[in-house]
Design a protein that fits this description.
The chain is mostly beta strands. The protein has 4 helices and 25 strands. The longest helix is centred in the N-terminal third of the chain and has 15 residues. It is globular.
Length: about 425
C-alpha cells in the first residue's frame, strides 16, 4: 500500500527540461554568507538522523509531486477534476493551491482543486473539489468526494499542506483560508481534513476572527516527532504575525506562544515552507525576505534547535537571510522546495513579483550547513502563463513548473 503525499502547485504542469525566450540559466547572482556554518561529523549526522525521521509537508510535496508528474498521474487527474460542475461565479484557482494525494491510503491517487470567485467580496461556498481515478470513491455529484461531515464554507484558500497528523499512516490535509477580500481584515480560518476510520472528518481550528491567513506549513516545531501547524496572518490588532498550533499526536491542536508581532520572523507571513535544511535533525522554517528600500529579495530561515523551532527566542536571533540582488518588486510571493545535498541543501525559490503579474524568477540557493555558498539565477523571464506564481520542482527528469494553463507544457533543452 503506497502513501503518496503531494501538493500540486496550481495543478497545472509546466514540465521544464530547459530554457525558452529570455530565460537565463546558471548565471551566478551573488555569494554571501549568513548564519553559522554547521561543522558536521559522522557522529553528528547519525544523531541528527535519529532525532528526526519525519518529513515536513514541503518535503512530502516535492517527493510525491515529481513521482506523479513523471508517471502521468498529474495530467490525468488534472483533466478529471475539470469534469466536475462549478457555479458560474466560481473559477479554478491559479495561485498554487491544488493538490494530488492518496487520501485513503489505498494506493490510488486522488486530487483536489480550489475554487475562487475573484470578486471584491469572495463567494462563500464549499469551494474545494475532489476527484479520484477510482470511480467507487466518487460519491458526490458536485464536490466529487464527500466525507463524514459537511465541507465547511470558505472564501479564498491560499495554501494547502499535507501530512499524517493523527499517527494512523493516512495522509491528512490542512487548508489555509485567507478570508474576505473587501479591504478589511476578517474571516481567515484553518481547516483540517483528518482521517477517521475509512473516511475523513472536517474540523476547524479556533483562530481569531480578525485575521487574514495567507500561508501555512506542517512542521515539527516542538521536536516531539509529529507535525504541528504554523501559519502566517495579518490582523487588525497586531498586524503581521505567525501563529503556532501544537499537535498532541492524535490530530488535536492547541495554540501556543508564538513569535511576537513586529519581529522579523512574524513580518514574513506571506509564504511559509519547512525542511531540515542544515541536516541537524530539527525542522527549519522557510519564509520570504524582501527589503523594500534596497529591493533585495531572498529567503529567510528560522533555524530549529534542541529547544524547538522558536525555542523561547522571539526576537529573530535564530534566523538567517539568503539573498539576491534587487529585482524591483512591488509585492513578493515565493514558493520553495529543498533538495538535500551531502553537505547541506539546495533551496529552489520561485518568486512572483510586481503585484504577482510580471512572471517569475527562479533562484537556486546552495547552503553548506547554515552558510550560504552561492545563489544562481536559473530563470529570469516573463512566463506569460500565470498571474500568480509558478512553483518549481527539481525532479530527476528536469525542472518542472506548474501553471493554470496546461497540464503538461515542455521546454526544449536540459537544465540540470
Amino acid at each position: 500500500m503506497s502513501k503518496l503525499n503531494l501538493l500540486f502547485s496550481a495543478f497545472f504542469v509546466f514540465a521544464v527540461s530547459g530554457c525558452v525566450g529570455t530565460s537565463t540559466f546558471g548565471n551566478e547572482v551573488s555569494e554571501t554568507s549568513s548564519g553559522t556554518p554547521n561543522e558536521g561529523s559522522n557522529d553528528t549526522e547519525q544523531s541528527a538522523a535519529a532525532r528526526q525521521n519525519i518529513l515536513t509537508s514541503t518535503d512530502l510535496r516535492f517527493k510525491s509531486m515529481c513521482e506523479a508528474l513523471q508517471n502521468g498521474d498529474a495530467s490525468r487527474l488534472w483533466r478529471g477534476i475539470r469534469s466536475l460542475p462549478k457555479e458560474p461565479v466560481q473559477r479554478y484557482s491559479n495561485i498554487g493551491l491544488d493538490l494530488i494525494v492518496d487520501l485513503f491510503g489505498d494506493g490510488d491517487l486522488d486530487a483536489s482543486a480550489i475554487m475562487i470567485s475573484y470578486t471584491s467580496q469572495r463567494h462563500e461556498a464549499e469551494n474545494i473539489k475532489f476527484f479520484s481515478n477510482d470511480a467507487s470513491e466518487m460519491n458526490h455529484p458536485i464536490e466529487g468526494i464527500s466525507f463524514l461531515n459537511s465541507q465547511p464554507f470558505t472564501k479564498e484558500i491560499r495554501k494547502v499542506s499535507q501530512g499524517d497528523l493523527n499517527s494512523d499512516g493516512i495522509t491528512d490535509l490542512v487548508f489555509f483560508d485567507y478570508g474576505e477580500h473587501d479591504g478589511s481584515l476578517h474571516d481567515g480560518k484553518v481547516l483540517v481534513l483528518l482521517s477517521d476510520g475509512t473516511s475523513y472528518r472536517w474540523q476547524q481550528l479556533v483562530t481569531r476572527e480578525e485575521l487574514r491567513i495567507h500561508s501555512g506549513t506542517l512542521i515539527d516545531f516542538d521536536n516531539d516527532k509529529d507535525l504541528d501547524i504554523v501559519f502566517g496572518s495579518v490582523g487588525a490588532r497586531d498586524g503581521r504575525q505567525i501563529f503556532a498550533y501544537r499537535n498532541d499526536g492524535n490530530g488535536s491542536f492547541s495554540k501556543t506562544r508564538q513569535p511576537r508581532a513586529g519581529t522579523s520572523i512574524s513580518n514574513s507571513w506571506v509564504t511559509l515552507n519547512a525542511s531540515d535544511i542544515d541536516r541537524d535533525g530539527y525542522h527549519d522554517l522557510i519564509s520570504e525576505s524582501y527589503d523594500p528600500v534596497s529591493g533585495n529579495f531572498g529567503v529567510q530561515i528560522t533555524w530549529g534547535s534542541e529547544q524547538g523551532l522558536f525555542g523561547g527566542i522571539f526576537e529573530s536571533t535564530n534566523t538567517s537571510q539568503v539573498t539576491s540582488p534587487a529585482i524591483g518588486a512591488n509585492d513578493l510571493l515565493m514558493d520553495t522546495i529543498v533538495v538535500p545535498t551531502s553537505t547541506g541543501a539546495e533551496i529552489y525559490a520561485t518568486f512572483a513579483v510586481d503585484n504577482y503579474s510580471a512572471g517569475s524568477k527562479i533562484v537556486r540557493y546552495t547552503l553548506s550547513g547554515r552558510e550560504q555558498v552561492s545563489s544562481e539565477l536559473l530563470v529570469d523571464s516573463l512566463f506569460q502563463t500565470s498571474r500568480w506564481i509558478n512553483s518549481v520542482y527539481p525532479c530527476q527528469s528536469g525542472l518542472k513548473f506548474f501553471t493554470y494553463l496546461s497540464p503538461n507544457f515542455n521546454l526544449s533543452s536540459q537544465l540540470r
